[in-house]
Write a structure and sequence with these properties.
heterotrimer; A alpha/beta (about 1000); B mainly alpha (about 450); C alpha+beta (about 180); A: about 1000 residues; 7-stranded mixed beta sheet; about 20% strand; globular; B: about 450 residues; mainly alpha; 15 helices
Amino acid sequence: MSGGPRDRLRIDVARARAAMAGRDGSPWRGLEEIAGTPEFEEFLHREFPHNASEWLDPAGRRDFLRLMAASLALAGFGACTRQPAETIVPYVQPPEEIVPGKPLYFATAMTMAGYSTGLLVESHMGRPTKVEGNPGHPASLGATDHFAQASVLTLYDPDRSQVVTHRGAISTWNGFLGALAADMQLRAASRGAGLRILTEQVGSPTLASLLRQVTALLPEARWHQYEPFAHETETRAARTAFGAPLHTWYRPQAAGVILSLDADLIGCGPGSLRYAREIASRRRAEAAGAGMSRLYVVESGMSVTGSVADHRLALAPSEIERFARALAAALGVIGPGDAPGLAPAHEAWLRPLAADLQRARGSSLVAAGPRQPAAVHVLTHAINERLGNVGATVIRTDPVLPDPDGGLPSLQTLVQDMDAGKVDTLIVIGGNPAYTAPAGLGFAASLSKVKLSIRLGLYDDETSALCGWHLPEAHFLEAWGDGRAFDGTAGIQQPLIAPLYSGRSAMELISAVLGRPGVTGHALVREQWRRARPEEPEASWRRWLHDGVIDGTRPPPRDAQVRAEALAGVAAAGPGPAPPQGDLEVVFLPDHGAWDGAFSNNGWLQELPRPITKLTWDNAALIAPATAERLGLASEDLAELTLDGRAVRVPVWIVPGMAPGAVELTLGYGRRRAGRIGTGPGYDACAVLPGSTARAYPGAALRGTRERYPLACTQTHHSMEGRGLVRWAPLSRYAEQPDFAHHQEHGGPGPELSMYREWKYDGYAWGMAIDLGACHGCNACVTACQSENNIPVVGKEQVMLGREMHWIRVDRYFEGSIDDPMVHHQPLPCMHCEHAPCEVVCPVAATTHSDEGLNQMVYNRCVGTRYCSNNCPYKVRRFNFLLYSDWTTPSLKMLRNPDVTVRSRGVMEKCTYCVQRINAARIDAKNEDRRIRDGEVTPACAQACPAQAIVFGDLNDPGSRVRRLKEMPLEYGLLDEINTRPRTTYLARVTNPHPEMPPPAAPEAGGHGEP
Amino acid sequence: MASPERNAPGGEGLIDPAHDYASVTDKISAFVLTHRTPRGWFIGFGISFLLLMGLLAAVGYLVARGTGIWGVNQPVGWGFAIINFVWWIGIGHAGTLISAILLLLKQEWRTSINRFAEAMTLFAVACAGLYPILHLGRPWLFYWLLPYPNTMNLWPQFRSPLIWDVFAVSTYATVSLLFWYVGLIPDLATLRDRSRRRLAQVGYGVLAMGWRGSAIHWHRYETAYLLLAGLATPLVVSVHTVVSFDFTISIIPGWHSTIFPPYFVAGAIYSGFAMVMTLAIPIRSFYGVGDFITMRHLDNMAKVMLATGLIVAYGYLTEIFIAWYSAVPVEQYMAVNRMRGPYAPLFWGLILTNVIIPQALWSRRVRSSVAALFVLSLIVNVGMWLERFVIVVTSLHRDYLPSSWGMYYPTRWDWLTYAGTIGLFLSLLFLFLRFLPMISISETRALISKAEGEVE
Amino acid sequence: MSPAARPTYGLLAEFETAEAILQAARQAHAAGYRKMEAYTPFPIEDLTEALGFRHSRLPAIVLAGGVAGALIGFGLQYWVSVLVYPHNIGGRPLNSWPSFVPVTFEMTILVAALTAVLGMLALNGLPRPHHPLFGVPRFREHASRDRFFLCIEAADPRFDPQATRRFLEELRPDGVTEVPL
């Protein structure tokens, strides 16, 4: 993967030649497919009003197609989606609402692993360009994660499948529907025997009810779900504990003491945005003091949640269960006899923790992670009951997912049936089981035994390659749908744009299976909710669409109790044998960027530095420093990992603070058929994923191969070198010296000292405050900025050269011992220094200061001396060393934010404080003849931040929040000793350690040198 | 130093006493007016020209593809381009120094080397001048740095050292050219009068502007020449001072240092004399002008190198001392990083080539061995290049925020561009040797009359 | 003042050494000749004085040039940075005069150097492609090589073809030739 559109262009040309030679048909498909449809005729008449008829006779059309195919392929993909913007505005918003140049916002929802998050999507003249959180949605509260931010790029991805194919050859929807109808008649005759439908974890009530209609209509038919990172263990644990698959969610805001047992509450999983907000609300600068919460994390890897914990204990996966049992015993949940002994160090860690939890009865929270076995979940339920947290910080409700058992077991039965020849027709909807299914399962092999296999997918991927029919799926921004949040609140998913590649949604396909092919997704969803809420007037439908939330759909709490016999059973079962000394346990995780492969072809996510490792474009086997020493491995060594007799070659990366003996692998890489970006990078972890429901596997081996595999890491140095960059103190020190941050800087003149008369900023004076106590390095800001500001992707080679273009980056430092370090995250946008060193050295005045204190970059004036970047002590300036922006691919042009220049080669660029948003607000304010109100301007980074760590506003407005924050004693300027007067300042981090807790290992220089 | 004879080592003078006005005139002008060019000239020029074509290729690809073909990145935004720019400019300085400062100091020994030393200055400045333009992200817009209201009536930003560079380098180039040309006028007249071919007569005639050696002309000529020397002397000091401002005006540890101007100037003279030596020794033997460029010249130049080399060494020491004494962590880290960091080998190589080896010049035996001097001069050229690399790269690659530290590795295009400018330099030099008197004839005549005057 | 029979530029005496021409010049000046010139292959001290030439105005001109350069240099920067296009650059004052020093200095040198060269040429009346002296073969051969010439011009009030030739021959030159116009 090399950056720059030139390379892409070359690939296209290659494809074009292939197309001519008739080997790879892809450039042809788009047209063939449209050709069948009436739209094609319209298109022709639109494009060629006169002598259009000549094109319609077959011979003429052939020539036309040949011409088009060439130009198409050369122009990059998606050219066939050229259509007037007006026609693709969803009709719920009549076109007359459009004021050219003024964006509209639509509420919709994005669903991952069954749970949906509400979004507001910005639409420019009918083009969705930017995703924001929906403030009214419980799972978002206005925030988004990086996946949601990057979803627009997937929408416009030129590599998305654009055509129906049958055995690799071009076909049409009509052709498919005919074949389907014929097959369904056979199925109907045998009451559905031999019909199987495989979906991802379904969260949509509408889709679920449609699938149930299928199974009701055809009793012999089966609906299977497979989600690589489903929550089936929790469900199983709930069945054991309560006798019902109850759903559990948390209220961390109400919790003064939080213990996470391998649960990445903040990092990923349903509700993580909400949890991040709530946890931060009791740890941020304003909260520093008595009410501050304390966060304990026990985990094997280094998760985002662990990186911000007050106390973090790194345990190998198998040890976590032992720890949970010991804790349960200490809290009297199970008998002391049933608890295994712990290592003295862990014992010493556990005792104050238990006491702390006890002390905070009713306002504490214990959460177990999805990778933990059911026993741990059962124990956790019991512990929370014992601590009286249920109802306060822990909420139990009826299942939120239509069928919460969607996971491996379901897939296993499907594979058995296929092998047994019981499956004649298989419809695979979404997902990519041929890639994500455990290697041990042999899904791919079994799939080939199926007579009629149909695949609906966004990409023509590994699974499509094995299926007879491939159908292009509509992206969630192209289709109607609905879903439920982590707390059960339902919301409608509105399309922002008509399907670019004539894709259809899952529910439309199932409707076709039910013999109603014509029905639109809109009709289906509307129908579903009319049935679910018969009493509601028509007006409320429009309100639901507008709000993105359907009020009153959150299920009420259930006060279920953990059944004694279940607890006894778990206690009796015991933790199982302790793994042998020096055993390697492999943990499989979704990738922070590629997830389970769903985002493999998304350049923004590929180039997004992972929160802890800062790796891009690859996945690596993460191991602890101790493990590395024991195995004689170094970062970027290519090693062979064997598990259950299967092997894969993986590059190794050392992560300080990981549990010795743990190996973390992430899915989503080593794709064989993902697209121009996703195919290739990384290794395929699924190749060693054993076919069991566990997520941690002992008995692995890791052997170096004496080969090296260079990884693209955006931060090669991990220590602050004793410089006061991230300033922090425990609560105790803060109590006696609130302005400790100002006593941690290194000499130099105070900011009062200046040789110049100060410039006056009497209008607005924009400034930013970043709360290091709240930030947990989740990267939402980085992707949001990339999306808002048309920031290009540069590719692995360029990242390795240090040329990534992100305007805001999150620096991550380790402090203390390399085995048990303290982690700091520090978001770094442009500091907009009042004494900007960059401006003084620019020979052509391409970067100057605005009268509102913005350090502004004038692209068309820049000649590219790069002196400003050299002279920027924060190194936040980014240079277009090559032509990084894609100026050719048509579909990507639709993605751009029209309010932001697309930069060309040879110019410098950097954070602008989202000046386009400031100006938009200024226009509104001027029209209403008033000043811009506080909170009216929110930069993309601040808007996306789940923890609200970034606050922006007018420093001249005495009432503004940013002004209040900057007046706090915790406020300090980065490198203020060199007197640059940054407008972006930080709020020092305050931690809340338990006084009786054993201190972490003696501080030594952590994480030195280039890996 | 009234008599050149007296303080010449080995009793050797500045010029072979056998020479008289006619013989020097005939010998030097013969190099130019001779009908057949020596084969060695064609070989040398051919090689240089090939390198020059390499430069064209490198520049062509650069403009087509972008600065990214070089090794520069974040955080090291400047690489070979600026290193070589400073290196070439520095080399230029010896020429001006020899022609201007030694003239003011009445050092007759400058006479037979000043002509091609000045030529060297011009060609070095030409090479140097290329880099700041090529290293731009959008080289075709370089003229936006010129002081006129260009796009949207916007003028350059005069607080930027790069603008100072524009003025300093262009002034330096102009004044050096004037100085060189004024010095050439009487010799051009000689060539005009001695050439037998019409074309040459017209060509040199036009350039000589009708010079006829009138005593009053000579008087004004000398006044002007002296004034030029008086102007060029502060200029040559200012140019490398301004170049050093590119670094000192910034706030980057390792750049932000007040010691830079003096030791940049010293370094410039150091490298410049090394280059003069590197050129003078082969020319001397190839054209057999040992009777003009005598051991006395080499000896004096060696002494100047020794002196300036010591100043440079003092500069290095001061930098390290100040870094420690300032008690500023970033400064201290910078100093340590140079000595122990990833680029340490280059730093120690610099110390070896620039400080330790040149100490050999203390010995008269070394100073009187042509071969030894030649090798030493080459070593110093390398050393001064290393110095610029260390200053530019090691300061940038690890500055304030460890999060954004990085490494810089030059690419093949960096190297090709560098080799290419060497080709440009040599090509120009060969043309000069072929078409213009490499030694000032009129000044040599004056030298002879002076010598005779003293003999009597 | 008997006018010359045929138009002549003057009489040209050739000498072998610098001392000789210096002597000759002194005597000619003593004899009251004013419009005369010496031509030498390299500058000779005192020769101009011997010819009665006082001092050159060049240094004054160059000084003026330097001052002008300085004013232009600083004036330009002040005008641009403070008057026509004021910018807030890194919070620095508009008139950041210390930053304006280098350019001012360079402009001083540049203009002064240009005036020095152009001034010299102008005062010398150069470039002058042709001159009667170039018509004298000996002059062309040796003036720029190894010989020293003294030319008393016909324009001199005391010039008389015979008398002046006689006078010159008394100076024991290597030869005296008439320079046709």
